[in-house]
Amino acid sequence: MNNPEEFNEYRSRMNEKILGEDNKVLKRIFNLDTNAFSEGSVDKKSKEMIGLACSMVLRCDDCVRYHLGKCHELGLSREQVFEVFSIATLIGGTIVIPHLRRATEYWESLDIQ
């Protein structure tokens, strides 16, 4: 799913279904995630770069796409994103390389828009 619109639509639709179940624990986890990435003493760009690096190391392609989208919205440059990619690959090791390929492809799809 490398189409950003398709990914965002799917994510939104599924989040609505999940939150529509009115499960207190799941709602709190979603809220915690939202609050963690809000502006604070660490700025949003830095938080998204941290989220991107962690997502790559944990090898979560959906999370990588999400954070790449946020990084793009916040105006990160290609050079900044590739620095994050390099740190994540260094920390995560060569097993991250397949995710790096998909992340690069997704970043390029965001730049086309």
What does this structure look like?
By secondary structure, the chain is mainly alpha-helical. The chain has helices spanning 4-20, 24-36, 44-58, 61-73, 78-92, 97-112. Helix 3 (44-58) packs antiparallel against helix 4 (61-73). The radius of gyration is 14 Å and the shape is globular. The model has no long low-confidence stretch (mean pLDDT 96).
Features:
79% helix; mainly alpha; AhpD-like
List the helices and strands and how they pair.
Layout: H1 4-20, H2 24-36, H3 44-58, H4 61-73, H5 78-92, H6 97-112
Helix pairs in contact: 3-4, 3-5, 4-6
Average predicted local confidence, pLDDT: 96
For the largest beta-sheet, the strand count, sense and barrel status come to: none
Listing every helix as H and every strand as E from the N terminus to the C terminus, the arrangement reads HHHHHH
- What is the number of helical segments per DSSP (H or I, 4+ residues)? 6
Instruction: Work out the number of β strands.
Output: 0
Category from helices, strands and their pairing: mainly alpha
Radius of gyration, in angstroms, nearest whole number: 14 Å
Quote the beta fraction.
under 5%
Global outline = globular
Overall helicity = over 70%
- Alpha-carbon distance between the termini? 16 Å
Unreliable segments of 5+ consecutive residues = none
Protein name: Carboxymuconolactone decarboxylase family protein
InterPro entries: AhpD-like (IPR029032), AhpD_core (IPR004675), CMD-like (IPR003779)
Domain Carboxymuconolactone decarboxylase-like: 25-105
Organism: Algoriphagus sediminis
